[in-house]
Every structure is written in structure tokens, then in C-alpha cells.
Amino acid sequence: KTRVPEGLKNIPTLSFLDLLIEIFTKVGPDKRWENTRDVLEKEGIGKLWFNGQWTITVTDLGLVKDIMTKTDLYPKALLEESFPTSLITKYYGTNVVLSNGDVWKRHRRIANPSFRNLPVHVFVESATKLLNVMEKIDNEPIEVKSLMHRLALDVLGKAAFGFDFNNLEDPNNVYVTTYNEVMAELSKPLYFVFSFLDYLPRFEALRKIAKLNSLYDEIVESKHKAMKMGEIEKKINNKSADLLEHMVYACNDPDNPTLTNEELRHDLAIFMLAGHDTTANALTTILYLLAIHKDTQKKVRDEILRVLGDNLIPSVEQQKELKYMNMVINENLRLYPPVAQLPRRLNSQEIKFRNHVIPAKTPIVLFIYGIHHSSRNWKDPEKFIPERFENEKHDHYSWLGFGGGNRLCLGINFSLIEQRIMLCALLRKYEVSLPADSIHKDKLQIEPEVSGTSGPHPVPLIFKRRTE
Ligand code: HEM
What keyword terms does UniProt attach to this protein (predicted)? Predict the structure, then answer.
């Protein structure tokens, strides 16, 4: 299996040893970029032997566009095909993120309306709770990463399926601990590199997954009961329904294909990953950037005070007016994309790219971090310059914070509303700075997390209450 297919021979090789070291030393996508930049900036493509086969890493924007828009030619690699016996497959199954063709369309059609009708009150209540919790730890460095994860988990639990993890107030609650333990099991590097180890039984991990699954199952069941009692329809009419309630409601539409309870559970499991860890990491890195760029922090705050006046929470119209904040959000996602590389695609047919012939079913990885940090796509790519989103022209596919094409993130608005509301609440009340002895003093330290996502190491920041 190590023999290079003929058509890939001229594609430069990326070092497998570097990758192994990166995985086992748990360094972030910045190191991966450092190790591959020379090849990828020059060629836009590299080949890598990984997990028993030759895979392709792509940063060339022409090929990126093809991959994002021709989803039949570049379907996603499905978990049950790539890792049939893995715990990841058991936990996430087939869901809206990891499916193709008609199955994906069925999930997406059911999920779509729920993302157009977000229960915004949940974000507002959580912002108030966040401030209350912070009140008690005012003026000491606060570890923002865990705080933002607790916040985002509460928001997701309530907005997605009406469950209050209450993680902001109770960091050790039993469901949170189980969720975190399951995530820790799923991100063990050993099983990624040597997937045959997945054939060994992992009883403890399976027990934890079963516990979490039974919570999701109970929630799905309770929504079906509420549906029968007519409660969901009432909530939809008064715009307080959560995502799962919208989905269960859509499943009852005779014109819509339905999802089974197991499929709904798998969607909930993937929402927890796609919607909670990503936004939590984005909020953490943006607070870090504002802490080290005081001028930007002031500009964002001035804009908040100007646009919101006495309002604490921005309305939908006001959120559009927060133009500078929106540029800062984009620049943060460019510098520190929480999804640093997209889930793998497998080309359904042989592909010709320049003088290379990529055989059908070659795993293809789209390296978002590399695309965002390439000097071919961005001027001074390592610099934090929010204004570039106003002043600089850049290729549509050079910014992929939320992916692109047909498989564009469903939760964009969910995440953006959450980020804007939290930033308004925090910056109005606090001035944020980085402690002098921070490990991030010279550079934000990033680590890989589950399935291609990445985030910073813990980030303690000082929140000083504003006097004005
Ligand atoms: C900063 C926060 C977020 C980031 C950076 C992010 C990033 C992404 C990216 C890059 C993709 C494309 C994946 C691919 O093409 O393979 C994606 C897809 C998706 N995201 Fe997000 N996401 C965020 C927040 C959310 C939230 C809050 C939710 C839901 C609550 C969500 C749900 C989804 C779903 C369901 C998809 C799959 C769409 C499809 O394939 O049809 N995301 N996200």
C-alpha cells in the first residue's frame, strides 16, 4: 500500500514523520503549516502517506473551488467507510455533516428551517448568566477557554434541544463530565494513526458513549411526546422552539422525508461538536486578540456603544451595523480557524489536475489553516488586520472559516449571533488584557482537538471593570 500510484508520482511528498511527531506532541495546525508551507505555497498540493494509504492535501484555490462546489465528484469520506469499527463512527453515525447525496439532502432539509428560526432569547439569557458568573471572579485572571466552553455548551444545549447543562454555574455536572470524557476518548491520537486498534474493545469508553446517547434518546423521545400534545406547534408559533423541536416538527410534514430517532440523535451529537467547541474556541481567540490589540478593542467597544446606545443586547438590525466587529470576527476566524482542515473528501472519479492524475477514491484534505495563512492569498498573512476585509481584494475561496459551496456551515448565523452578543456584553463591561507572564505572550499556543478542529491552550485573561 506504500507504492505511489502513477498519477501521484510528481506530486511533492509531505513528511509522514513530521505528521506523526505533530500528532503525538499535540501541536496545532500552525506547526503543520510550518512543516508543509514550502511545498504547499509553491505547488498548492502535496501527497502524504497516512493511515495505510496515499492522501492528498490541497491549498490550490482552483482545486479548492472544485472540491467545494462539485459535491458529487468530491463526496465526503463517510465514517462507516473510513473507520468502520471506530468509536467515532458509533457515536456520530451518519449525520448532516458526515453524509452525502440523498441522505445528506434529507438531513439538511429537515435541519434547514430550524437554523432560520433561532431561539435568540437563549443567547441573551446565557450572556446575562455569563456576566453574573464573572462578577464573582472580577479582576483576577480568568481562564477564558474553559469559561467560553461552559458558556457555549449551555447555549448549544438550550438552543439545540432545550436541555440546560448549567455548565456556567456547575462545571462538574454529570452530563458535562460525561460529554468531556467522551470527547477525550474520541480524540486519542493512537486510534487515529493506527486505526486497526479500533478492533480492540474499549468498554469504558463505550459505557460513557451509551450514557450520553441515552440522554439524547430521552430528549428526542420527549420532543415526540410534546409534538403529539400540540406543544411544539405552539412554541413554533411564538418563536421559542429549539432546533430539535423544529426538526421533529419538520419530520411530521408529509412533503418532507423524515429522519429516524437514531438519525436525529446523530445530528444532535454532531451539533454538539460543530456548534459548541468551534464557537467556544472562536470566542476565546477573539478575546485573546482584543486583549493584545488594545486599539482594536477600543474601536470595537466604541462601535458597540455608538450602535447600541443604552441597549445591552444588539437587535438583528444593530448586529448588521456592527461592521467593524464583524471584520474582527472574520479576521479572527482567518487567523485561528476552529476547523483547521475539512473532513476528508474521496473523489468519485479519476481527477486530472495539472499533469497529475488523482485516482478515484483518494482521500483529499482541504487545509483551511494553510489557505488562510498563505502569502499567495493574503498580504502579511500572520498579521492581525481586521481592516483587510474592507480594503483588500481576496479570492472568494481564500476565506473558508465556515467552509463553502453546498456544504457551507448551517450554523453560521447561530455562531455569529452568539459571538456578537457575547462580545457586546463583555466589552461594554470590561477592559480585557493579557497577563504579563502569559504563555501566549509571544504567540498564541494552539493544540489539535477532535476531528480536524483545533483551539488554543488555556488562555487566562484579565477582565478589569470599566469605570466610564
Ligand atoms: C465559529 C463557529 C463555527 C465554525 C468555525 C464552523 C465551521 C464549519 C465548517 C468549516 C463547515 C464545513 C464542513 C465541511 O465542508 O466539511 C461547517 C459545517 C457545518 N456546521 Fe459549522 N461551524 C461553526 C459553528 C456551527 C454551529 C454553531 C453549528 C450548529 C449549531 C454548526 C453546524 C454545522 C453543520 C450542521 C454543518 C454541516 C453542513 C452541511 O454539510 O450541510 N456550525 N461548519
Answer: Heme, Iron, Metal-binding, Monooxygenase, Oxidoreductase, Signal
Distance 62 CA to ligand 1 centre (A): 22
Q: The dihedral of CA 115, 121, 124, 125: what is its sign?
A: negative
Q: How many whole angstroms separate alpha carbon 50 and alpha carbon 196?
A: 13
- Give the count of alpha carbons within 13 A of 21, CB side only: 7
> Separation of 258 CA from ligand 1 center, angstroms?
22
- With cell 488562510, the residue in question is 372
- pLDDT tens digits along 167-182: 999 888 888 888 888 8
Please state, for a pLDDT cut of 70, what percent of the chain lies above it.
96
Which of 325, 337, 316, 457 shows the shortest CA–CA distance to 409? 337
Atom 36 of ligand 1 has which residue's CA nearest to it? 409
Paired sense of beta strands 446-448 and 454-456, if any: antiparallel
| Interface predicted TM-score of the whole assembly (ipTM), two decimals | 0.99
Q: Ligand 1, atom 43: nearest CA belongs to which residue?
A: 409
Amino acid identity for residue 416 in this structure: L
What are the tens digits of pLDDT across the range 304-314? 999 998 888 89
Pocket test for ligand 1, best of 409, 415, 416, 450 (most atoms within 8 A of CB): 409
- Residue 346 has phi, psi (to 5 degrees) of -125, 115
